[in-house]
Amino acid sequence: MAEDTRRFWYYEHVCTHPSPFLRYYVWQQTAITVGFTQGAYARKNLHVFEVPSHQIAVRPTGGGIVFHRPGDLTYALYVPLQSLPCVTGTMEDVFMSLSQPLLDTLAQFGCKGSVHKSTQAKRKGRRCQNAMCFADVEGYEIQLDGKKILGQAQRKGRQVLLAQGTFQNLPLKENQYDPFVSQWGIKIVEALRAWGANSRASANSIPALETA
């Protein structure tokens, strides 16, 4: 999480021409992350979490509380705002645009995912910091066989959009993670180039996606 935060800060305050970047990693032990607006809440309520304090981290994105299990696949995708087709749209628009490359990649690995529009109404007075990310399906979520497989949050800066997420209930083995994310990166590149004609960036000015 510290590296994800560092890179977001770098793209926002140091780098003048950020390139798309996809970083992914696998959790080695149980951990908890909370959205960047929830840091104070997490520090004040450490007693409610059944993990040591050094296994609780604050994400650079928003969203609810995520319990990470050993083997969970997490990613951080940085996309320059000028590369998006809906740079002036809502975060919902951005989510929908970024979902298709992932759905296409899941299909290549035999996983027929879908975008689910929840009909659940948000409870009045519900505080975001108390929300368990995988316990609720609100807004748009990616599901597989009726189960939420991706908990993600986004943060829109001045230069880049950071989309950060964790997969759970993903029917892939760990030795499939590398080819899965590599193929997903290819699909994102294809989408960025296709979007170029309808965004502020031309196709020629969109660099290939880096991965780490």
CATH class: Alpha Beta
The 3D shape can be described as globular
Q: For the record, what is the CATH homologous superfamily label?
A: Bira Bifunctional Protein, Domain 2
Our measurement of the CA-to-CA distance between the termini, rounded to an integer number of angstroms, reads 14 Å
CATH topology: BirA Bifunctional Protein, domain 2
**What percent of the residues sit in helical stretches (DSSP H or I)?**
25-40%
- Helix-strand topology string: HEEHEEEHEEEEEHE
Radius of gyration: 17 Å
| Low-pLDDT windows of residues | 121-130, 197-208
Count up the domains.
1
| Major sheet details | 5 strands, mixed
Taken as a percent bin, the fraction of beta residues is 15-25%
Short description:
With about 210 residues, this protein is α+β, with helices and mostly antiparallel strands. The protein has helices at about 1-15, 40-45, 90-110, 175-195, and strands at about 20-25, 30-35, 55-60, 65-70, 75-80, 115, 140-145, 145-150, 150-155, 160-165, 210.
